[in-house]
Structures are given as structure tokens and as C-alpha cells.
Write a structure and sequence with these properties.
It contains 16 helices and 12 strands. It has about 375 residues and is an alpha/beta fold. It is globular and about 60 Å long.
């Protein structure tokens, strides 16, 4: 069936909308992407979000306003990408306003009812709360889909996503879900973005293609200071976000102030590449690595990761038919299908949950008919 997956990541780039034909195939899925686009946040909305997200302290009123504004923006983005396609359902992650995995607290916003009314279809949302209720961190959730899409009988594989935060899913050969492991490895693009925004006073929001970092030199001593942060040495399961690796992280390291824009970008790109590479090396000594997320487009991060993972085959997720920017949106579309089937969608080794959990809440639209379709597809 044709469905939409919608993701708004910690980079605050905008709203990722993926339209896909999703079909169950035994215990796996075949996923064919039909359309994908990132609809950027309007500058005023993005600036407002940055003003209320950590490390700033928003109000309850801000949360309510964000719920409405992001719901409306998401509905508009979906209309733009889906056009006249009839969608069986929509699976929406929402925009994370707050995440504290250790405390089992997380909040994603964006009213699903604007989306339901716009698309006239069922919307599955609030995927993380069920895992938190089961004692998990609520993140990362995409590793379960990584296993469904990338597991191989004969080959060790690693699925990596470099968004605002970077995460890795280690999938040993053999196709056994209980052996898969995953965690948030640390910053992805978030620190580089924050540094560039701060240094250029908002003239640039990110390091396009890593051009700044490629023109700079890594400050090795400062890099080692940052790599000594306790998060990198913690054992999994672990998850993180803007609350930890936001702009306030940069202020802990005064050495960045003396670096040029290019050298700072190079040092922070190296932090992402090395922390991610080292996390993978803790669990595997070789295999095939599929990278998605905007960080793959940053040449400094990409080359740094390839250099760190000598002996691995590192390539874009596009070689598996999954566009680098679209993977997480597609993953939530698959998680939505699992919810409709009543099947757990969390990987306990990744989140630390005490039990498998069926994820998500449902804003229904002709739900009985949709569930009949799901049942018929799964029985075929």
C-alpha cells in the first residue's frame, strides 16, 4: 500500500516527507520510494523553534503553540509532496522538543489532526512514548527498521544515520534480530551547524558539503579534549539530543573561540567522524556500512569516517535504493505499518526497554477499512 512517512530531525532543516509503496514480505518489507522532498521550515518558524528549544527554557504555552504550528506546517508539506496521491496512512515522527533518555522522557510535537484532515487518512504518531513506558529511552527507533531492510544472511552490516545526532545499527550476519545492537554515537551535524551559525551570525546555517571544514585544519589537542567527554565512553543503550550536544556543548570548550571558522568546522567534523567510527569499531572489525543522513554530504565527515573505518566498505544507503535524506522518513512509514499490524517496533538492545512494545498512537480515519487492507496484504 502507498503510505507517507514524515520526519523532522534534530538539525531543524525542515520536514522530510517520503511517499512509498510498502509491502510485507514474510517478516520483512519491500519498500519502493515514490517521492521524497525536504520542505524547509520558514525562517521565522525555525528561528522561533531555536529560541524555545534547549538550552533555552520554553513555556507550556510554547509547547502548545508548537503543537499547532508544526501540525499545520506538516500538513502543508504533505500536501505539497503527495499531491493527488491517495495515501493508505501517514506515519509522523514530529519535531522533538525535549529528550532525556535516561529519565525515559521525550516529547515530539505536531498535531496529527491537521494532517488527518488534509490527507483524509489515518495518522500514526507519538512513536517514542510506548518505549519509554516500557523502561526504554525512546530512542533510537530506526534500528528496528534498519534490521528489516539491511540484514543479510552472509554479511555483517552497519546502518548509519548522520543527522543532527549520529547513530549506528550493528547487524551481524545471519539475520538474528536479537544480535543486533544500536545506539546514538554522539553529534552528527548539530555541533558544526551551531558553530557555523554562531560564527557567521546566522548568515550560514550549516557547512554546505563540508566546504568550510575541508578548507581548515583539525586542532588535534582540542579534538582529544572533546572526545574525552563522558558520553562517548558510556556503554549502550544510550541516546542523546540537543539537550546535551547543543550550542552549550561548544561553550564548554573555550579553545574553539581561538580557531578560525574553517579550523573550527574541521575540528567538529572530525569529532563526528571519529566518535562514530570508534563506536562502530567497538562492536565490529569489518563489514559493509550504509550511511544516510545529511552528514554523508559533508565531505569532511564522510572522508573522516572512511579513513577511520579502514577495512570496512563504506558507502551511501542509495546503493540499497534508499536516498540518504529519505531513510528516516521511510523508516517511520515502516514503523507505522508495524503499528497497524500490532507488532512491536522497538529494538530492546537499542533503547534498553524491558519488553517489546507496539509503538505509536493513532488518529483514525476509516480505520476499520485500513486494518482490513493490512490483514489482506499480510495474508497474501
Amino acid at each position: 500500500m502507498i503510505a507517507a512517512g514524515i520526519m523532522s530531525g534534530t538539525s531543524l532543516d525542515g520536514i522530510d516527507v517520503a511517499i512509498a509503496d510498502i509491502r510485507p514480505a514474510r517478516n520483512r518489507y519491500t519498500v519502493s520510494a515514490l517521492a521524497f522532498q525536504t520542505i524547509p521550515y520558514e525562517p521565522e518558524l525555525r528561528s522561533w523553534l531555536l529560541s524555545v528549544l534547549p538550552p533555552h527554557r520554553g513555556t507550556v504555552g510554547d509547547v502548545a503553540i508548537a503543537q499547532r504550528r508544526l501540525g499545520m506546517a506538516t500538513a502543508q508539506a504533505l500536501r505539497h509532496v503527495a499531491r493527488d496521491r491517495e495515501l493508505a496512512y501517514v506515519a509522523m515522527h514530529g519535531q522533538t522538543l525535549y529528550h532525556d533518555g535516561d529519565a525515559h522522557v521525550t516529547l515530539q510535537v505536531g498535531s496529527p489532526f491537521f494532517i488527518r484532515d488534509a490527507a483524509k487518512t489515518t495518522v500514526i504518531f507519538d512513536f517514542r512514548s510506548a518505549d519509554c513506558a516500557a523502561g526504554g529511552q525512546g530512542a533510537p527507533l530506526v534500528p528496528y527498521v534498519d534490521f528489516l531492510l539491511f540484514a543479510d544472511k552472509n554479511e555483517d552490516r552497519i546502518a548509519v544515520n548522520i543527522g543532527g545526532i549520529a547513530n549506528a545499527t550493528l547487524i551481524p550476519a545471519g539475520g538474528d534480530l536479537t544480535r543486533a545492537r544500536a545506539w546514538d554515537t554522539g553529534p552528527g551535524n548539530m555541533l558544526v551547524d551551531a558553530f557555523v551559525q554562531e560564527r557567521t551570525r546566522g548568515a550560514q546555517n550549516f557547512d554546505c558539503d563540508g566546504s568550510l571544514a575541508c578548507g581548515g585544519a583539525v586542532d588535534g589537542a582540542l579534538l582529544q579534549q572533546m572526545l574525552a567527554d563522558p558520553y562517548f565512553g558510556r556503554a549502550a543503550p544510550k541516546s542523546t539530543g540537543r539537550e546535551y550536544f547543543g550550542a552549550q556543548f561548544l561553550r564548554h570548550f573555550g579553545g574553539l573561540d581561538r580557531l578560525s571558522l574553517e579550523d573550527g568546522a574541521a575540528t567538529l567534523a572530525a569529532l563526528t567522524a571519529q566518535s562514530l567510527g570508534d563506536a562502530i569499531l567497538q562492536g565490529m572489525k569489518g563489514g559493509r556500512v550504509f550511511v544516510s543522513g545529511g552528514g554523508w554530504k559533508n565531505v569532511a565527515i564522510r572522508n573522516g569516517l572512511i579513513e577511520r573505518l579502514r577495512g570496512f566498505r563504506v558507502e551511501s544507503s542509495a546503493v540499497m535504493g534508499i536516498e540518504v535524506d529519505a531513510k528516516e522518513a521511510l523508516a517511520f512509514a515502516v514503523l507505522g505499518y508495524e503499528t497497524l499490524r500490532g507488532r512491536p517496533g522497538n529494538l530492546r538492545a537499542a533503547t534498553g526497554a524491558s519488553r517489546p512494545a507496539v509503538l505509536g498512537a493513532i488518529a483514525p480515519y476509516r480505520l476499520d477499512y485500513l486494518l482490513q487492507r493490512v490483514g489482506a496484504e499480510c495474508a497474501a
